[in-house]
């Protein structure tokens, strides 16, 4: 038997365990061992009564009163993640280029002010309009006296054969997906540095930044080269911003989603019905993901639960890239 294994004296029926501990000397104090209940007749205790209090709250996942910006937050994945942040207690400001957000946005905003006792506010701005972007972000920080986090989810995609791609289309793709993400992160980080508060920044990348998507082949053999290149750039951007801003207490990580069934993808399936059956075959779970499956990742990366995590990518792709 190992010299460090906890040993127990013989137990008489009805007596409590009396452990005798032997620990290696260290700076860490020994972890207390919970005393089990005495044996007695009667109904089995409920799960709630036997669960240690420390495991119920998980306060490190709380975002209570934290102020977080979500770009691309008017709809889709950005809005879904914004709602998760609200549920964790955050005050959320969504920015997007749409004149009016998706109808679901108003439902989430009403839920925020009512049921969740927080707020979801919409700001219209294109992430390529750097002056307006900086003004809005600075205004948010000034209003609350703090700015704690960002999810940079704004992005576009386009399917064009590489031999036919126009330079202006590539520039637009990079302008939104890379420069837009960079400038949004910069605007938020400037306020974090000004307020000397630190914080957490999450850039939405894609598994497409890691692999040349097997299965993402339409009848014309398009693999979205510009889009995939833009997401690879986001991954590298995240690592390098983490390296630069770590001294300010700012963490920067990325999330790389797999295929997500959104309203836009559902419309795509109407045009290319074969994709609905083909795409799920290329990951280990044999299905596509839902936006709701990325809620937990957002809360984790923006909360203290990930306080020692930076420069990392959280890939959630059903095992697509692991083949």
UniProtKB/TrEMBL annotation:
For this protein, the record's SUPFAM superfamilies field holds: NAD(P)-binding Rossmann-fold domains
Gene3D superfamilies tied to this protein: NAD(P)-binding Rossmann-like Domain
* Signal peptide, first to last residue: none
Which key words are in the record? Oxidoreductase
Q: Which GO terms describe its molecular function?
A: oxidoreductase activity, acting on NAD(P)H, oxygen as acceptor; oxidoreductase activity, acting on the CH-OH group of donors, NAD or NADP as acceptor
Q: Name one Pfam family in it.
A: adh_short_C2
Q: Which protein family is it in?
A: Belongs to the short-chain dehydrogenases/reductases (SDR) family.
Query: What is the protein name stated in its UniProt record?
Result: Short-chain dehydrogenase
UniProt organism field? Colletotrichum musicola
Per the UniProt record, the lineage of the source organism begins with: Eukaryota, Fungi, Dikarya, Ascomycota, Pezizomycotina
